[in-house]
UniProtKB/TrEMBL annotation:
InterPro entries: Ion_trans_dom, TRPM, TRPM-like, TRPM_SLOG. It is a multi-pass membrane protein. One of its GO terms (cellular component) is plasma membrane. Keywords: Ion channel, Ion transport, Membrane, Transmembrane, Transmembrane helix, Transport. Residues 543-556 have a biased composition (Low complexity). This is Transient receptor potential cation channel, subfamily M, member 2. GO terms for molecular function: ligand-gated calcium channel activity. The keyword Lyase does not apply. Residues 534-568, 1107-1132 are annotated as: Disordered. It is found in: Membrane. The keyword Transmembrane helix applies.
Length: 1319
C-alpha cells in the first residue's frame, strides 16, 4: 500500500469518526428538545379568546386582539350567542405554542430560555420548568427588583452603586434576580448591570436573571411562536417601532411570558410573579429562602407591590434618589407616624410625580396615604438606601442588613432563621455585619449550634470569621471532638502529594491525627499521643520515615509520661500549617496558648515546660524582658533544644519562618556576636585581634581583654585561632593571596607546561572544592541532604562559588589541550572576574558595608529591567542609522558594531563622524568593504561625497540623545534613588538576618585557611570514615539541657512572661491616662461641659421646632393598652382593624388614614357615601354602637357573631417546673396550620387571676362590631392536675419566642409578670 493511499484512508476514517460523533451530539440535542417540548405541552398552557366581540374600534375584539388573530370558532361561536364579552368566561386555556431558546443576535449572540405561560399556571410547575427542564440550580437568595416600568433618569453615582451592589449580591450568594423582563425602566437597569458583569468577568458562570413579563405587551412576539418550539427563536429588539408595546431585554437569561388572553394590558404578570416568588421562598428544606425586594422609582403599582410584599414579611430596600414613589417613601420613613398626613403625601406626590400628579384623585391619595402609613409602621421590613456625600456603603450591605433586620423580628422562624442569615454573612465574608447584626446580646448561641459555621469558615479560608466564632462561644474541643471533622477538613485541602498519601493511609477517620503525625515525621512526635500501632512505612511511600531515635523517644515517652490527650488547637494548627495558611495558623496557636495557660496549674511538668515556649512564640516581647533581666539565661533560651518542635531551637524556628524582626533584636544579635568572637571577649577591638593573629605571643601579655573565665597558655592560643572572626580574617588574607597568585599566573606565568606557581594554584583550588563539599554535607541540624542542598543553592555566594569552580575546571581542561590552549586562558580570565566578585562577601560582616551589598543586589535587578528598556532605543536607532548610511553591508561583525556598539558609545559622548558631511573622512572607510579593518563607506555620489540626508541623521541623533541620555538615564537614577530609599530602612534588619549564616559557616569551618585547610579535610575524612568516630557536638547553636536545668530555665521565663504582661497592661493604662491628661490640658473640663450643654440645648430646640412632643407630653398621651401595635403607642389607634383586606372574604375596607380614625374628627365624604348611605339599612346605621377604637373602614357585623362587643375568655394554664426552673403554659396545637393558641372556655373550675380585660385590635373588627377579651390565668401546683402533653394539648415554655399570635403573646407576657418571671 502506497503512502498516499494510507494517508487517504486515515483522512477518511477521521472524517467518518467525526461525523458519527457529531451525529451523536445532534441526536442527543434533538432528544433533549423533544423531551422539553413534550413536557411543556403537557404542563404549560396559554390563554386565548374564544368569543369575538367588537369594541368599537373596527375589527378589534374586546380582548385587544384583531379579528384575524381569532379562530373561526371564536368569530362565529354557537355557545355564547347573545352574551357580552367577559374575560372570566370567554378566555380559555390551550397548550402553549411559544417556548424554546431565544437569540437576540448582535455582538456576543446572547441567548436565553423562554416560555409562554397562563396566568393560572401553578408556581410549582413553573419552578419545575426552571430547575428541572432549564437546569437552573436552586437559589440561595431571591432578589425581586421592581419600580418604574418606563425609562427614568438615574444619577450616575447611584446607578454605579446599584449595578455594583446588585451584581455582588447575586454573584456571591447564587441568587436569582426576578424583574419585569422588558427593555425599559428598572428592568433595563438590571440588564445593564448583568451586561457589565458579563463583559468584565472572565468566569463562565452566568447570573440568573428571570424576566416575568406580560405576553400581550411584547413587541415582535410572533417570532417566538411555533407549535413545536423554537431552537432558537431569532428575536429582533425594534425599540423604534414598538409604540405602546415593549421589547424583551437581551441581558436576561430566562423569560416567563404571562398570558391572560388579552392584548396591550400591562400588569397581567404581577399576581403570578408574586405567587412564584412566595412559592420559591418556601421551597428550601432547611427553612425559607430569603427574599428581598429592591425598589427604584415606581408609581402607584409599585406602591401596591411594596405594600403586599411587606404584608407577607418580605423586606424591601428603597433607593432614595431614584424618583417618584421611592423618594416619597424615603422622605417619610424617618418621620413619626403622626406627621405622615394626607396633606404631606399630597405635597410629596406633587413634588416627585410632577405633571402626573394632576391625574390622581382624592380617593387615591387617601388610599396611598394609608398604605404608606402601613409601610412605615413596619420599620423592621423597610430599609432606605441613602447615598450622601460622606457615605461610601454599597447596596449589597444594605440588602444584607435588610435581611438580618427582618429576621430579628420574625415570630416563628427562631434559630433556624438566624442560622440562615449567618450562612449568608459567611458566604459574603462580611465579618463586620455579622458582628454588629447577628452576634448581639439578643441572640443566644450554643457551641454546637455554630459548628457548621466554623467548618464553613475554615474550609472557605475566612480567618476573621473563625476568630469571631471563637469569641462567641465556639469550643475547639467540642468542634474537633470527633476525628471525622478533622478528616473532613483535610479532605478540603487542594490536591497535593501530602493529601494523596494521607488518603491512602486513612482507612477510618478515627486515626487521622496519628496518620498526620506519621506523615510529617519527627516534627509532630510529641503533639499526638503515642500510638500503639506499629507503622512499617517503606521509602516508596514517604521520605519522612521515623528514625531509630524517634522510636526510642516514643518508647521513652510511653514509659515516662502518662497518656496525653489530643489537643484540638494543635490539630487545627497542623492543618493550617500543612496548607501554608499563616492567619489560620496564628489563630490556632492562640488557642493552644490559652489551653496551656488554663491548665498550667494542674498539668504535669512537661506541660509546664512547654507553656513558656508557647507564650514566647506568641509574644516576642517576652524575650526582650528576659534579655533585660538576665542576658545569659536569655541566650540559653535561644539555643535550647525543644522536643516539641522536632529537636530544634527558637533561633532556628525564627530563621525558618524568615522572621527578620526577631533576629534583629538586640538579645539575638548579642548571642551572635558572642558566637562570632568565640572564647574571646566581645569588647576586643578588631585591630588588637589582627595584631595578635600575627604576633600571637601578645596573647599572654594582656594585650587582648581576658575572657570571662581564666584559660591556660595552650587554651588561649587554641581559642584565638579557633575563633570564627579569626578564621574569617585569615581566610580574607589568604583569599587576597589566592587572587594575587591567580593574576600573576594569568598575566606573567601562563606557560604551555604548568609552572610551580600554577600547580600551587591548582592545589589551592582543590582545597576550596573540598571545603565546598564539606559545607554541602555538614548537617548539624539534621535537615537531610535534600533540604541542605536546597539551602546551599539558595545562597547567592554559594552560587558564585560553584560558578567559579566550574569555570576554572573548564578552563583547566581547555588549557591542557593544545588546540584550545588560548581559549582556556580566556575562560580562566573570565573566571578571575567571578572570583573577584566573590570577594564582596567579606563586606557582609561589616555593619557599614554589609547593608550596602544588599542595596547593590537590588539595584542590579533594577539595572536588568532598565537595560531591556534601553536596548529598544539602542537597536531602533542603530538599525535606522545603519540602513540610511550603509548600503548592503554583509559583514556580521561590522553590522553588530554599527547597530549596537556605536549607538551604545553615543550615550557616553563618543559621536560617529560619518553622519555629518563636515567631519566625514574618506580615508576612514572602505568603499566596497574590501578592507576588513575599516567599515564600509556610506553611499557616495559621482563626486565621492555622501548622498545621505544629513538633516535627517542629525535630527535622529538629537532625538536619540534626548531619550537615551536625558530621559532614560535620569529614569535609571530615579529608580536607583527609589530603591535606595526603600531598602535603606530595612537593610539593617536584612543584614542582621544574613549575618547568622556567615557566623554559622565560619563557626563550623576548620581553623586553617586554604590551601592548608586540606589537611583538616584529610583529618576529618579519616576520623569519620576510617575511625568511625561521631562528629563533635557544638552547643553554641543547639544545646540540650538536663531536665532540672531545663525546668528552672522555663520557670524563670514564665516569671518574665508574667512581668512583661503586667508592664504591658500598665503601659497601656498609663498611655490612656496620658491622653486624658493631654485632653484636659488643651480643653479644660469646664469648657467641655459648657460646650456639651450648648449642643444638647440646640438639639432639643431643633426637635421642638419640628413638632416633636417632649417626654412629658409623650408620657401623658401614651395609652396603657399593651395589646396595640408597639409602633403605634404614640397614636393609640388600632392597626389590624384597618387593614385593607377583610379576612375570609373579598371585601376591601375603605382606607382610613391615621388622622381620620377618631370618631370626633370630621367624617370623610367618600367614606359616608360608600359605607353609610347604602340602602336599605342606611336609616338603622346611626343607631348602632360605635367601635371604641375608632373607624375601621367597614360597617356592619362582619365575620363576628354579633354587633357590639364580642367577648372572649382565653385561659392561661401555667405551672412552674422545678427541675428546669422555668414557667410553662398549656397550648393547643393546630395541626393544619402548624401554630399554637391558648385554650378558651366560658368559665373556670379553679381559682384564677385576671391578666387583662378590654378592647382587642382584631382583623375582624368593624365600625359596629369588635372583640373584647378577658384573659384569665390559672396557676397549677402540679401539671397532672390538668393533663400531660398529649395530642393537641402541649406544655410550652413561657418565652418571647412562643409561637402564638401577637395578642396572645402579649397576654403571656403579662402572665409571666404576675409570677415574676422574665419573658
Amino acid at each position: 500500500m502506497s503512502e498516499a493511499d494510507l494517508e487517504s484512508r486515515l483522512v477518511h476514517s477521521l472524517a467518518v469518526n467525526t461525523a458519527i460523533h457529531s451525529k451523536h451530539l445532534s441526536l442527543s440535542l434533538s432528544f433533549q428538545r423533544l423531551a422539553l417540548a413534550s413536557w411543556i405541552k403537557e404542563n404549560i398552557c396559554k390563554k386565548e379568546c374564544c368569543f369575538f366581540e367588537k369594541d368599537g374600534r373596527g375589527d378589534v375584539c374586546k380582548c385587544g386582539y384583531a379579528k384575524t388573530d381569532h379562530t373561526d370558532e371564536a368569530i362565529k361561536p354557537e355557545d355564547f350567542t347573545g352574551e357580552s364579552w367577559n374575560i372570566h368566561r370567554h378566555v380559555r386555556e390551550a397548550p402553549t405554542d411559544a417556548f424554546g431558546d431565544i437569540s437576540f443576535g448582535g455582538l456576543g449572540q446572547k441567548t436565553g430560555k423562554y416560555a409562554r405561560v397562563s396566568t393560572d399556571t401553578s408556581p410549582e410547575i413553573l419552578y419545575q420548568l426552571l430547575t428541572e427542564q432549564w437546569k437552573l440550580s436552586p437559589p440561595n437568595l431571591l432578589i425581586s427588583v421592581t419600580g418604574g416600568a418606563k425609562n427614568f433618569y438615574l444619577k450616575s453615582h447611584l446607578k454605579n452603586m446599584f449595578h455594583r451592589g446588585l451584581i455582588k449580591v447575586a454573584q456571591t450568594t447564587g441568587a436569582w434576580i426576578i424583574t419585569g423582563g422588558t427593555h425599559t425602566g428598572v428592568m433595563k437597569h438590571v440588564g445593564q448591570a448583568v451586561r457589565d458583569y458579563a463583559m468584565s468577568s472572565s468566569m463562565q458562570s452566568k447570573i440568573v436573571t428571570i424576566g416575568v413579563a406580560t405576553w400581550g405587551i411584547i413587541h415582535n412576539r410572533k417570532a417566538l411562536v411555533h407549535p413545536e418550539g423554537c431552537f432558537p427563536a431569532h428575536y429582533l429588539m425594534d425599540t423604534g417601532n414598538q409604540g405602546q408595546l415593549s421589547t424583551l431585554d437581551s441581558n436576561h437569561t430566562h423569560f416567563l411570558l404571562v398570558d391572560d388572553g388579552t392584548h396591550g394590558h400591562y400588569g397581567v404578570e404581577i399576581k403570578l410573579r408574586s405567587c412564584l416568588e412566595m412559592w420559591i421562598s418556601r421551597k428550601w428544606t432547611g427553612g425559607t429562602i430569603p427574599v428581598v425586594c429592591v425598589v427604584l422609582d415606581g408609581g402607584p403599582g409599585t406602591l401596591n407591590t411594596i405594600y403586599n410584599a411587606m404584608l407577607h414579611g418580605t423586606p424591601c430596600v428603597i433607593l432614595e434618589g431614584s424618583g417618584r414613589i421611592a423618594d416619597v417613601i424615603a422622605h417619610v420613613s424617618g418621620l413619626p407616624l403622626i406627621q405622615v398626613t394626607i396633606a404631606l403625601i399630597q405635597q410629596l406626590m406633587k413634588k416627585f410625580f410632577g405633571q402626573e400628579y394632576e391625574q390622581f384623585s382624592d380617593g387615591k391619595i387617601i388610599e396611598w396615604t394609608k398604605k404608606i402609613q402601613d409601610i412605615i409602621r413596619m420599620p423592621h421590613l423597610l430599609t432606605v438606601f441613602r447615598v450622601s456625600g460622606d457615605y461610601h456603603g454599597d447596596l449589597d450591605v444594605a440588602i444584607l442588613q435588610a435581611l438580618l433586620k427582618a429576621s430579628r423580628s420574625s415570630e416563628f422562624l427562631g434559630v433556624e432563621c438566624w442560622k440562615r442569615q449567618l450562612e449568608l454573612a459567611i458566604n459574603w465574608n462580611r465579618v463586620d455585619i455579622a458582628e454588629t447584626e447577628i452576634f448581639t446580646e439578643e441572640s443566644q448561641w450554643k457551641s454546637s449550634d455554630l459548628h457548621w459555621a466554623m467548618f464553613s469558615a475554615l474550609a472557605g479560608n475566612k480567618p476573621q470569621f473563625v476568630s469571631l466564632l471563637l469569641e462567641n462561644g465556639v469550643s475547639l474541643r467540642d468542634f474537633l471532638q470527633k476525628e471525622e471533622t478533622l478528616c473532613e477538613l483535610y479532605k478540603q485541602l487542594p490536591s497535593c502529594f501530602f493529601l494523596r498519601k494521607l488518603a491512602k493511609r486513612i482507612h477510618s477517620a478515627r486515626c487521622s491525627g496519628r496518620q498526620v503525625r506519621h506523615l510529617l515525621g519527627k516534627f509532630t512526635q510529641p503533639l499526638y499521643p503515642p500510638s500503639t500501632d506499629q507503622f512499617n512505612m517503606s521509602m516508596d511511600e514517604t521520605s519522612l520515615s521515623p528514625s531509630k531515635s524517634q522510636t526510642s523517644s516514643q518508647a521513652q515517652l510511653r514509659e515516662d509520661s502518662p497518656e496525653t490527650q489530643r489537643d484540638p488547637g494543635t490539630d487545627l494548627f497542623l492543618w493550617a500549617v500543612v496548607q501554608n495558611n499563616k492567619e489560620l495558623a496564628e489563630i490556632a496557636w492562640e488557642q493552644v496558648m490559652k489551653a496551656l495557660l488554663e491548665t498550667s496549674t494542674t498539668n504535669s511538668p512537661v506541660t509546664m515546660r512547654n507553656m513558656p515556649l508557647a507564650v514566647y512564640m506568641c509574644v516576642p516581647g517576652v524575650f526582650t524582658e528576659c534579655h533585660s533581666s538576665d542576658e545569659s539565661r536569655a541566650k540559653k533560651l535561644l539555643v535550647r533544644m525543644s522536643h516539641l518542635w522536632g529537636r530544634t531551637t527558637c533561633l532556628r524556628l525564627a530563621l525558618e519562618a524568615d522572621d527578620k524582626n526577631f533576629i534583629a533584636q538586640s538579645g539575638v544579635q548579642a548571642l551572635l556576636t558572642q558566637i562570632w568572637c568565640g572564647k574571646l571577649s566581645v569588647e576586643n577591638p578588631v585591630w588588637r585581634v589582627l595584631i595578635c593573629m600575627v604576633f600571637f605571643p601578645l596573647m599572654y601579655t594582656g594585650f587582648l581583654l581576658k575572657p570571662m573565665k581564666p584559660l591556660g597558655c595552650w587554651s588561649r592560643l587554641m581559642y584565638l585561632y579557633t575563633s570564627p572572626q579569626v578564621k574569617f580574617y585569615w581566610n580574607i588574607v589568604f583569599y587576597f593571596a589566592f587572587l594575587f597568585l591567580f593574576a600573576v599566573v594569568l598575566m606573567i606565568d601562563f606557560q604551555s607546561t604548568p609552572s610551580a606557581g600554577e600547580l600551587l594554584l591548582y592545589i589551592w583550588l582543590l582545597s576550596v572544592v573540598c571545603e565546598e563539599v564539606r559545607q554541602l554535607f555538614h548537617d548539624p541540624d539534621g535537615f537531610g541532604f535534600r533540604k541542605k542542598a536546597k539551602m546551599y543553592i539558595n545562597e547567592f555566594w554559594n552560587i558564585l562559588d560553584v560558578l567559579s569552580i566550574i569555570l576554572f575546571l573548564i578552563g583547566l581542561v581547555f588549557r591542557l589541550t593544545t588546540e584550545l590552549f588560548y581559549l582556556g586562558k580566556i575562560i580562566l580570565c573570565i573566571d578571575f572576574v567571578v572570583f573577584c566578585l566573590r570577594l564582596m562577601a567579606i563586606f557582609t560582616i561589616s555593619r557599614t558595608l554589609g547593608p550596602k551589598i544588599i542595596i547593590v543586589r537590588k539595584m542590579m535587578m533594577d539595572m536588568f529591567f532598565f537595560m531591556f528598556l534601553l536596548s529598544i532605543w539602542v537597536v531602533a536607532y542603530g538599525v535606522a542609522k545603519q540602513g540610511i548610511l550603509i548600503h548592503n553591508e554583509n559583514r556580521l561583525a561590522w553590522i553588530i558594531r554599527g547597530v549596537v556598539y556605536e549607538p551604545y558609545l553615543i550615550i557616553f559622548g563618543q559621536f560617529p563622524k560619518n553622519i555629518d558631511n563636515t567631519e566625514f573622512d574618506m580615508n576612514s572607510c572602505s568603499v566596497n568593504a574590501t578592507d576588513p579593518l575599516k567599515p564600509k563607506c556610506p553611499v557616495l555620489n559621482e563626486n565621492q561625497s555622501p548622498v545621505f540626508p544629513e538633516w535627517l541623521t542629525i535630527i535622529m541623533l538629537c532625538v536619540y540623545l534626548l531619550f537615551a541620555n536625558i530621559l532614560l538615564l535620569n529614569l535609571l537614577i530615579a529608580i536607583f534613588n527609589f530603591t535606595f530609599e526603600e531598602v535603606q530602612d530595612n537593610t539593617d534588619k536584612i543584614w542582621k538576618f544574613q549575618r547568622y549564616e556567615l557566623i554559622k559557616e565560619y563557626h563550623s569551618r576548620p581553623a586553617a585557611p586554604p590551601p592548608f585547610i586540606i589537611l583538616s579535610h584529610i583529618y576529618l575524612f579519616i576520623r569519620s570514615m576510617v575511625l568511625r568516630r561521631p562528629a563533635k557536638i557544638y552547643k553554641e547553636f543547639k544545646n540540650e539541657l538536663n531536665p532540672t536545668e531545663d525546668e528552672e530555665l522555663l520557670t524563670w521565663e514564665s516569671l518574665m512572661k508574667d512581668r512583661y504582661l503586667v508592664s504591658a497592661r500598665q503601659e497601656q493604662s498609663q498611655s490612656t491616662e496620658r491622653r486624658i491628661l493631654d485632653t484636659l490640658i488643651h480643653f479644660p473640663l469646664s469648657h467641655q461641659v459648657s460646650q456639651s450643654t450648648k449642643a444638647l440645648q440646640w438639639i432639643m430646640d431643633s426637635l421642638k421646632s419640628q413638632g416633636l412632643p417632649s417626654k412629658d407630653t409623650q408620657s401623658r398621651n401614651e395609652t396603657p393598652d399593651s395589646f396595640r401595635n408597639t409602633s403605634e403607642k404614640g397614636s393609640g389607634f388600632h392597626v389590624k382593624s384597618r387593614q385593607f383586606s377583610y379576612p375570609n372574604s373579598k371585601l376591601t375596607r375603605f382606607p382610613v388614614p391615621e388622622e381620620k380614625v377618631p370618631w370626633e374628627v370630621l367624617i370623610i365624604y367618600l367614606y359616608i357615601i360608600k359605607y353609610y348611605l347604602c340602602p336599605p339599612q342606611s336609616h338603622q346605621l346611626p343607631l348602632l354602637r360605635k367601635n371604641p377604637g375608632g373607624r375601621t373602614g367597614i360597617s356592619g357585623r362582619g365575620a363576628l357573631s354579633r354587633l357590639g362587643p364580642n367577648l372572649n375568655f382565653p385561659l392561661i394554664f401555667s405551672w412552674r417546673d422545678s427541675e428546669k426552673s422555668v414557667l410553662e403554659y398549656l397550648a393547643v396545637y393546630d395541626e393544619s396550620r402548624g401554630t399554637l393558641s391558648l385554650p378558651g372556655v366560658s368559665s373556670s373550675l379553679c381559682p384564677f387571676n385576671v391578666v387583662y380585660t378590654g378592647y382587642v385590635d382584631d382583623y375582624r373588627n368593624t365600625d359596629n362590631a369588635w372583640v373584647e377579651m378577658t384573659v384569665l390565668n390559672i396557676h397549677l401546683n402540679r401539671k397532672s392536675q390538668v393533663l400531660s402533653s398529649n395530642g393537641a394539648l402541649q406544655w410550652q415554655e413561657v418565652s418571647s419566642r412562643a409561637r402564638l399570635s401577637s395578642n396572645q403573646r402579649e397576654s403571656l407576657r403579662l402572665a409571666a409578670a404576675l409570677h415574676n418571671r422574665k419573658f
